Amino acid sequence: MEITTEKIKELRAKSGAGVLDCREALKECQGDIEKALEYLRRKGLEKVKSKANRLAKEGLIESYVHQGGRIGVLLEVNCETDFVARNQEFKDFVHNLALQIAASAPSYISREDVPEEVKRREEAFYREEARKSGKPPEVVEKIVQGKMEKFYEENCLLDQPYIRDTEIKVADYFGEVAAKLGENIVIRRFVRYALGEE
């Protein structure tokens, strides 16, 4: 199948990937733009995983105050180089994460950050709740798994639906940006304040 320049341009506009990467993706996916986008996303995520052990000491600290000073967020996101830290796409990414935190009030960055005692307490609560409804044990476990997924989605930043595109999770947005920038990016820490909250 011949890969036209127009197709490459279209894929490039949608993905932000380089010309050669777009051509390769279109060849692999027989010219299908949607499949090529997914191919590029997978390939980018693999690159991101391979760079995950590289040191990320540069980056930005972003502050965001919302609703006339009623909600505030302070966030640190690291990258490997000062060059990327000054990149507008990286700056936009960090700002969008601050907006996400202000809007969705996560407690943790990822599910790996949730303390084991909190996981055990939540699972025990959901298990007891499901047992009281008289469900069989195998159904109870499925209910507990489903409720824990919902818990992670509500409380973990990377598991939350992204506020600017609820079809994807924050982790997907994070992966796309990291793949485009080609560096290890780390959401180091955040704090969210809401006026009057303990």
Question: Any overview of this molecule?
Answer:
Helix 5 (88-104) runs antiparallel to helix 8. The protein starts with a helix and ends with a strand. By secondary structure, the chain is an alpha+beta fold. It has helices at residues 5-15, 19-28, 33-50, 82-85, 88-104, 116-132, 137-155, 170-181, and strands spanning 58-66, 71-79, 161-162, 165-169, 186-194. The model has no long low-confidence stretch (mean pLDDT 86). Strand 1 (58-66) and strand 2 form a beta hairpin. The protein contains 8 helices and 5 strands. The chain is globular, with a radius of gyration of 20 Å. The protein has 3 domains: 5-50, Ubiquitin-associated (UBA) domain (Helicase, Ruva Protein, domain 3), CATH 1.10.8.10; 58-110 and 156-194, Tetrahydropterin Synthase, Chain A (2-Layer Sandwich); 115-154.
